[in-house]
Amino acid sequence: MTIQWADGHQSAYDFELLRWNCPCAECAGEMGIPGKLATTSELSDEQIDLDQIEAVGLFGVRPYWKDGHSTGIYGLSFLRAICPCDECAAVRAAR
Fold it and tell me: Where are the domains of the chain?
């Protein structure tokens, strides 16, 4: 998935990166309780195959994965924060 940001920056996300960063409570955890991904070392093909994606208002996107998972809503600010490009990675490392 590629996003062209208003400031001209472009971010390209592979589906596996998106799934590892799923922000839903089931995957990421909530209230101090780790989610499923905390104890997962490998994702199946169905977990990283995208079935469809839809916009959620003006603030994010919701992917629908082939394994039936669809509860993660990725906010645009969250997506920008996890941009995998070298420039963004260097900024994160400098913090």
Answer: 2-94
Q: Is 74 exposed, middle or buried (0-12, 13-18, 19+ CB in 10 A)?
A: buried
> pTM higher than 0.85, yes or no?
yes
Instruction: Report d(CA 19, CA 35) in Å as an integer.
Output: 13
> pLDDT 10s digit of each residue in the chain, 95 long?
999 999 999 999 999 999 999 999 999 999 999 999 999 999 999 999 999 999 999 999 999 999 999 999 999 999 999 999 999 999 889 98
Torsion of CA 54, 92, 10, 84, to 10 degrees: -70
CB 71 within 8 A of CB 56: no
| Cβ atoms of residues 69 and 40 within 8 Å | no
CATH 3.40.50.720, domain 2-94, yes or no: no
- Cα separation, 17 vs 14, whole angstroms: 6
Q: Tokens standing for 46?
A: 């169905």
